[in-house]
Design brief:
Helix content: 55-70%
Mean pLDDT: 80
Radius of gyration: 18 Å
Number of helices: 13
Bound molecules: zinc ion
Low-confidence stretches: 1-29
Strand order of the largest sheet: 1-3-2
Order of helices and strands: HEHHEEHHHHHHHHHH
Shape: globular
Structural class: mainly alpha
Largest sheet: 3 strands, antiparallel
Length: about 260
């Protein structure tokens, strides 16, 4: 199997040929969306420059043990907190819920739509399916996560927080070649497209409208976080060029028509 680096080198040419629409993602969100809730009373809310300090503060508030994974603490801690938030009181044993943490004390919880990660994978462009990473996440994990498609947003949160940590704290410019965050931005688009197609009653419901907004927020923030940890002259264009070979017309149309990319 080819390595990801070899794959990216090969697709360098495809980048020029395919291009991306001039996407509107990466816009900062100045208003807090109405589907976000805060873990603490407004008076107790604290904000941190360092996302690890942020997550640990709110984990302590919830009485959660801090695992301190050595390799990628911010990534692992995000999963721990998201998993804790998934233990939602509305869970009734029939419907899984997925909690998502957004830093600054903000979080949300959505019930899992009745689609599978296998179905999401059908909307993942073929170019992305060739990467080792995709082989791991969307194929191997089908066996344990298949009925929890919002797990994709959990992973997107973890990689987004990792990129924010890198942009603000580590500032390691050797991460320019990593595709993990961008892949999950694309999986999130495929997730949205699959929900819209397979369970329109969810997608079009008031809850589904909030989920649409959450998806839009998450992919835009993921994209922006990737730009912020890319230390080159024109980071936004650089990231667009890297993302282009993994997009196809179906996902681009979905992003335009349903998530408001232009
Ligand atoms: Zn992870």
């Amino acid at each position: 199997m080819q390595t990801r680096r070899q794959f990216l080198m090969q697709t360098g040419i495809a980048t020029l040929a395919l291009g991306l629409p001039s996407i509107a993602c990466g816009k900062p969100y100045n208003e807090r969306p109405n589907w976000m809730r805060c873990l603490v009373a407004e008076g107790e809310r604290r904000t941190f420059q360092n996302p690890v300090e942020d997550i640990h503060y709110y984990m302590r508030v919830l009485g959660l043990p801090i695992q301190r994974t050595i390799e990628t603490p911010v990534h692992g801690d995000t999963h721990d907190l998201n998993n804790r938030l998934s233990q939602h009181p509305y869970g009734n044993g029939w419907t899984f819920h997925r909690g998502l943490y957004f830093l600054n004390g903000d979080y949300t919880v959505f019930p899992e739509p009745r689609i599978t990660i296998e179905q999401v994978n059908e909307n993942v462009p073929n170019t992305l399916k060739l990467t080792e990473f995709n082989g791991y996440y969307l194929t191997k994990l089908v066996s344990v996560r298949n009925n929890e498609p919002l797990y994709i947003l959990d992973e997107l949160r973890a990689f987004t927080h990792g990129a924010i940590y890198n942009s603000r704290v580590t500032r390691d410019n050797n991460r320019n070649g990593s595709t993990s965050l961008l892949e999950f931005v694309i999986y999130a688009l495929a997730l949205g497209k699959t929900i819209k197609e397979k369970v329109p009653y969810y997608w079009d419901s008031p809850l589904g409208k909030d989920l649409q907004d959450c998806l839009r927020f998450s992919v835009n923030q993921g994209f922006a976080a990737e730009v912020s940890q890319t230390f080159v002259k024109d980071p936004r264009q650089f990231v667009i060029n890297r993302m282009a070979p993994f997009m196809d017309n179906n996902l681009t149309d979905f992003a335009k028509n349903s998530l408001g990319w232009s």
